[in-house]
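Render Beta-galactosidase, putative in 3D.
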Amino acid sequence: MSNPRFRTFLTACLALLCTCSLGNPLKWEWASEPMQDTLLGQGTFTASKLLDQKNVTAGASDYLWYMTEVVVNDTTVWGKSTLQVNAKGPIIYSYINGFWWGVYDSVPSTRSFVYDEDISLKRGTNIISLLSVTLGKSNCSGFIDMKETGIVGGHVKLISIEYPDNVLDLSKSTWSYKVGMNGMARKFYDPKSNGVPWIPRNVSIGVPMTWYKTTFKTPEGSNLVVLDLIGLQRGKAWVNGQCIGRYRLGENSSFRYYAVPRPFFNKDVNTLVLFEELGLGKGPFNVSVDIISIESRNFVKWDQGCSS
């Protein structure tokens, strides 16, 4: 039921047949994705070339960090530069010296793209951290094993904005690599995990790479249960540690409903965890757990009645 084609079909049906009524709001906790290592350019191995994401991750993760260092001696030339990344996509996030700088989100069917981002560099050592994200096999056509993914081969270049004839090709620099996100490795999504730094107040919004957690009671009956993820942008969702798939709303709010198989539920209280990558939406405050009444073809907000 977490198949993307099914989610698309479900979304289309709900958009046409259902009306919504408000239920009790969920109470949220949050945690930042730990990125101290990758934002400092610290990976698990290095290579003097840009590798194929598919080969490096070997199916273990949708995420691969590409990290390198650039030493700037003359900020007059390189202080304001354009970072140009030729990638096989579909998503690239860029961090410069530990700060989130931008994102490129291509159409899933696009085989390659060029991501340009104007950046600021300081005198001395600068760290460029690029996070490449794939969307899974279901978003690819046949012969996926024959297709390159990520930032394989490059190029990755710096182009001086003040002096555009000055171009620095970083494609064959020493690149450090890390597979996956630390929060997923530490199982932030699993309610049984200990030591997750959940914060129960001042819920952070508008910040990329943020985790959210809440609890809700199991809806009664046997009707189909869906998550309404309105207000979010892009990421993954788990119910009781079981992944229900990747969500991707963007500006199209109709693609906001995601089915949750009833076998995922506990008898009473359940834990919903979201990993929001983009963080440019309104946060999780309007997210709800809904049920669909088959008999009346009506879409009803489930009264969760569960504090977290």
